[in-house]
Amino acid sequence: MITELLDSVENKSLKQKLPVFETGDTVDVYCRIKEGDKVRTQIFNGTVIARGGRGINATFTVRRVAGDEGVERIFPLHSPNVLDVRAIRSGKTRRAKLFFLRDRTGKAVKLSQRHSSHTVAR
Questions:
Q1: Helical H runs in 14-89?
Q2: What is the chain's Cα-based Rg?
Q3: Domain with 66 in it: what CATH number?
Q4: Averaged in consecutive runs of 10 residues, what is the pLDDT profile of the chain (122 residues)?
Q5: Which structural domain range is residue 84 located in?
Q6: Which of 16, 34, 108, 120 could form a disulfide with 87 if both were Cys (CB 3.0 to 4.6 A apart)?
């Protein structure tokens, strides 16, 4: 009974239209940033190295290298501050978690592109 009550409350906060992307894809994450009384949209571009959780707790981790420094951000998938996630290119992977990319630098960070029927909408 408690689980059913929690599910009914959580379902109101879930996004109806979820973006389609997988681990290994290069994505643009459009975030709402509030600074004082102003609100702006910031784009975080990087490679999805992990997805986790389920339901309202679903998250994804995006990694990019900015100025010889690796930056990772964990985004809640159903957050109202995550406006949109757009897949730019699809990477070929054989794993669900790509934490081995943390040890790589330069061109070794780049994943080979998937050329199969997995199409990415721009």
A1: none
A2: 16
A3: 2.30.30.790
A4: 84 89 95 95 96 93 91 95 95 94 86 71 56
A5: 2-109
A6: 120
